[in-house]
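User: I'm designing a mutation panel for Peptidoglycan hydrolase-like protein with peptidoglycan-binding domain and want to avoid disrupting the core. Could you give me a predicted structure to guide residue selection? Please restate the sequence first so the numbering is unambiguous.

Assistant: Good idea. Sequence first, for numbering, then the predicted structure tokens:
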Amino acid sequence: MAVSQNGWPVDPARRSRTVPGTNVRVVVADGPAGDVLVWVLAQFDRRVEDLDAGADDWGYANRPIRGSTITSNHASATAVDANATRHPLGKRGTFTAGQVAEIHRILSEVDNVVRWGGDYTGRRDEMHFEINASYARVAAVAARLNGGTPAPPAPGSGGHATVKRGSAGADVALVQRYLGLKADGIFGADTEAAVKRYQSAQHLTADGIVGPATWARIAAGLGGSVPGTGGGGPAPAQPGTTLKRGSQGPAVTALQRRLNAWYPAYSHLTADGVYGVGTESVVKEFQRRAGLTADGIAGPRTLAALKL
Ligand SMILES: [Zn+2]
């Protein structure tokens, strides 16, 4: 069986998939490799750089590595290129240091089963991300991503996933921000220790796992200002609410906290409940990235996209 550079089979079952949060489509292998690559692209779009609507995000292509006879990982549909025209093959420094750090953070969240072409020691390929691990390792990561993100949240959790050591994502960042930790969205040993301390102080079972009971307590601690968490009073943003420049109150605080927790790469708002210029500009940035009308007004569609 022909394999590409990373040992994955050439011309596998594959399909065109939309990167969540974008209109961009890429052809990737069915199964865990495609799941992980699409997740990485979605995080890239959200946290590093908008994926261009233009046709320069590429997945499957049966071809050798340019300038080589080795079969490219694009041939096994286990590689993707992001914003290729902005990050041409061979060119260095097409991302800022902050963006590079964020790329590495994303890849660490998938246990580095994806390698970035910007980390090649030879010719750099900064547009390029590829699977660089065995099927078993990639499948384990995909199972965690699929289990931690779209899986239905536990009853009583108010829409938040149960998170614990090894979890990653927005709900982890929310817990971290609440506990005063660095909100990197990765549930490691420090987060676990802080959760246990919090649980002890709250007379909850100190197991380090943030399930429905702990979520409910976090919501209560925030005076119910984490909407949808349950147990902490009514969600501040009622259906049909529109928040905009000049709005004030707990619904604005909830919006600010949500933006900070979910989008730490660009949202650093003071959660003061006052919808000023800063909040407006972060809302615009969110809308732009989410494909909504970027008017800076948090109406029903924007609030729904933020699960508020
Ligand atoms: Zn490539």
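For picking mutation sites, this is relevant: Residues 14-145 form a domain with the Muramoyl-pentapeptide Carboxypeptidase; domain 2 fold (CATH 3.30.1380). The CA atoms of residues 48 and 99 lie 5 Å apart.
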